Amino acid sequence: MVENSKSAGVKKVKEFDYTQYLVSHEAETKIITVDGTAESFEVSVKPLSWSKRNQLISKNLNWDSTGTTSFSADGYVRDCLRAMIVDAPWGRTTESLLLSFDERLGTALETLVPKAFGEDAQDTIGTEVDATVIKKEQ
What we know:
Elements (H helix, E strand, L loop, with lengths): L27 E6 L6 E6 L4 H11 E3 L5 E3 L1 H12 E3 L7 H6 L2 H8 L28
Antiparallel strand pairs: 1-2, 2-5, 3-4
């Protein structure tokens, strides 16, 4: 929200502290549980900044010559996971590794990815991709 201020007759506004809005560079440990199994494991993740999330959305949003848009939810999720996962039992999180995971592990990892679109899209970890909001590219 932007408000105009006039110098005459306006109380001094408390100085804005932007530092409370900076994304931490500290990795956070999350426990991932694979549905349908008794297995769980720890991963260290770093949060995505507002700008990085927007870059990944832009990378996976496409326009064709007729002006139709499509969004690669699969690409967005994989890009986010590669950017966010700092440490995991498998070592480095690569594109080829993510492509080799089965649905159970992939679905469990998706819980780390922030929503790309929608009312609740936030720059925090721990949100899930809402399939009703995002149409997967076919």
